Amino acid sequence: MKPCASPLDYETLTAWWLGEREDEALEQHFLGCATCSQRLEALAATAQGIRAVVKNGAIELALTPKFLEHLKREGLRIREYPAQPGATINCTIRAEDDAVVSRLTAPLAGVARLDALETVEVAGRTERRRLEDLPFDAQAGEVLYAPSATELRKMPAHTWRLQLVAVDDKGERKLAEYTFRHSPA
């Protein structure tokens, strides 16, 4: 296979694959370039795998708005919980839901790296962990987070607290905190 003289970047490939960019010259490039066609096929296979594990509830992940919209167009049933800083949200997951997504609003302008500090209080126990380098939309001021649906369905009533933290070379600063009170369906 002959290497591509001007390979398309993943942002362009993703935009075309998600249907956000229609460009006849781009389509002609795919038809004539085995390298970029293979990269596009790999991207589609990866996205299909991610869709499957999200639908099966096997993983937790932070999503981009574009990928969330793609999952919805693909037919996934997603329960969304919008959350403002300081909010307490009563939430659940039902049998018909493929995933639950928390839409966390936060002041993200100027943030280079975003981490989340998670605290789960369940049955008298407290568990803490850190999620590093989450994707976010600074312009929209939003982080989209989907916990593992499989694990969420197994859990009894519990409280989940999430704190978003901006990280840079000067250290960390708290941006926002949210509290979710989960009840089994």
What would your notes on this structure say?
There is one protein chain. By secondary structure, the protein is an alpha+beta fold. It has helices spanning 10-17, 24-32, 34-55, 65-73, 149-154; strands at residues 61-63, 78-83, 88-91, 99-105, 113-122, 125-131, 142-146, 158-168, 171-182. The protein has a five-stranded mixed sheet with strand order 3-9-8-5-6, with no helix packed on it. A hairpin with a 2-residue loop joins strand 8 (158-168) and strand 9 (171-182). The N and C termini lie far apart (54 Å). The model has no long low-confidence stretch (mean pLDDT 87).
Helix content: 25-40%
Q: Biggest sheet, open or closed, and with what strands and sense?
A: 5 strands, mixed
Strand order across the largest sheet: 3-9-8-5-6
Annotation, overall tally of beta strands:
9
Low-confidence stretches: none
User: Count the helices. How many?
Assistant: 5
> What is the average per-residue confidence, as pLDDT, rounded to a whole number?
87
Question: Which structural class best describes the helix and strand composition?
Answer: alpha+beta
Query: What is the rounded Rg?
Result: 19 Å
Strand content: 35-45%
What is the succession of H and E elements?
HHHEHEEEEEEHEE
Termini gap: 54 Å
Shape: globular
Question: Which structural traits does this protein have?
Answer:
globular, five-stranded mixed sheet, 185 residues, four-stranded mixed sheet, alpha+beta, 29% helix
Short note summarizing the structure:
This protein is of the alpha+beta class. The protein has helices at residues 10-17, 24-32, 34-55, 65-73, 149-154; strands at residues 61-63, 78-83, 88-91, 99-105, 113-122, 125-131, 142-146, 158-168, 171-182. Helix content is 29%, strand content 35%.
